[in-house]
Amino acid sequence: MLVHIDQDKCCGAGHCVLAAPEVFDQRDEDGIVVLLDARPPAELQQAVREAADVCPAAAIRLEMV
Amino acid sequence: MATAAPTPTPRLTAPAPRGACPFAPPPAYQQAHREEPISRISLWDGSTVWLVTRHQDVRAVLGDARFSADAVNPGFPFLSAGARELASGKPTFIRMDDPEHARLRRMLTGDFMIKKVEALRPEIQRIAEELLDKMIAGGSSADLVRDFALPLPSLVICLLLGVPYEEHDFFQECSRVLLRRDADPAQVRAAQDSLVDYLAKLTESKRTAPDDGILSRLVARGELTAEEIGSMGRLLLVAGHETTANMTALSVLALLRNPEQLERLREHPELIGGAVEELLRYLTIVHSGLARVATEDVTLGGVELRAGDGVILMLNTANRDEQEFPGGDDLDVSRDARRHLAFGFGVHQCLGQPLARLELQIALSTILRRLPGLRLAASFEELRFRNEMLIYGVHELPVAW
Question: What is the ipTM of this complex?
Fold first, then answer.
């Protein structure tokens, strides 16, 4: 799994950080999404899928590689 | 394959009355959801708009940039005369589309990010304990709205903004007027103006005496006028007052009416995070629907909508949608309710939701821990539900312990 984020779309709701804190963080100055791990290990992939699903701004795109 | 739009004869009106269960959406909307999930409805001003009731359709519209939140677009539906009056003034970012919406919202997203909000936990816990100390010292019964549910989020939002809490009678009265569905437009305008004027003056005073609140930080950015900051502050102050307050009180009531769920939560306090999501879903206090207008022709759930068509999105029926939440009419604190739409969806989704979640988790778990004998001190039938307000809840919640 390859994770892509779009910081221009992000509205800072923070669902991704709640779902998968090992993979997503928020930028200190404005709360915009930061990607910590673009290739999350298998055990985190379900949480990453949930993060992408509940992201209100559709700022997370998953590529199956 | 899209089918033709149904006959444009309005069958329903908004707002629709509640049925026997005051926690459930109005029966007329539930019936629409079952029989014609995207249907026509007439509003107070005689206009006819689309009522959207399914989870998948509500989510689709809120995530689709072809639907605008900007009230200057022709056909934008207003839920009340007061809402139309407010839209004729200077809009805040909730009534703007991107990129202007994103520019203004991003001035605040840092203040509501997960780790900033989490850092407030000890302070919010302290406030919750103090309010309960005072309430318990006052006897063995109280109005939970007045003594706990309202002051908790009010104190927190005042702290965050840098607004003196001593003025709370004034803000709370202004909030009540702004959130009445049936308020006179002139009263709405007056409440709006006096709140913005007050906050703009307070903002001016921060130029010479800054603190670490949001108003001071917006001053320091140097991008907005005092009036623009006042207007943004008004949005945060009103949203911070009434939403969490009503969710707290209504959640306590819903748990008292579902004693097996209340017991479950007392026995398993670690369920609180999921229980708050379930209560948000089950109660959906933004009960009047969200307004959008199509800016292009769009096919939604097999129905053709035209550019200029107004759309009312019912979060409450979407959050009871059996396709998404089987058995959704039941409160189940161990359900996975994370896909609920109580905070909306799309780029306008509630900015303050991390704060709301934390406040609700602290408020409910502290009440359960400190008041083991909590019970309703009035008959359920006597309670006054907030049908006439844009944010649902109870006006008072008499409890004893």
Answer: 0.95
